Amino acid sequence: HRHGMRFTVNRRDLPGTPDVVFSRARLAVFVDGCFWHSCPDHGTKPKSNREWWEEKLSRNVERDRRKDDALTKLGWSVVHVWEHEDPSTAAREIVELWRRRTDRA
């Protein structure tokens, strides 16, 4: 808020229910868990019932791509932040993108 950025959380009227939404900038942010979204660095696969979990996690990733495509077609910019990312770094990147999309450089 101190940067003049206003946001809402969990917007159910948008594809995928983004975690944080900056409407003015048409910017949708998702915070992805490493396990549930198959992080290439930290994602793990359970040892028991492996086939079921691989299919489940694969469907999650496919769903993520579909919601990204749907939001993009609606004119939104989509950002995914991994749970392991430094929050300050992620916030700075989002602020910069917000400024570019709202012409507030």
Overall description:
The chain is an alpha+beta fold. It is 38% helix and 16% strand. The protein contains two helices and four strands, in the order E-E-E-H-E-H. It has a four-stranded mixed β-sheet with strand order 1-2-3-4, with helices on both faces. The two termini are 16 Å apart.
Mean pLDDT: 93
Shape: elongated
DSSP, total strands: 4
> How is the main sheet built?
4 strands, mixed
Summed up, the helix count is 2
Low-confidence stretches: none
One letter per element, helices H and strands E, the order comes to EEEHEH
What is the rounded Rg?
Answer: 15 Å
Helix content: 25-40%
Oligomer: single chain
**SS strand fraction:** 15-25%
What's the N-to-C terminus distance? 16 Å
Strand order of the largest sheet: 1-2-3-4
Q: What is the SS-derived class? A: alpha+beta
How would you summarize this macromolecular structure in one to three sentences?
The protein is built from two helices and four strands; from the N terminus they run E-E-E-H-E-H. It has 105 residues and is an alpha+beta fold.
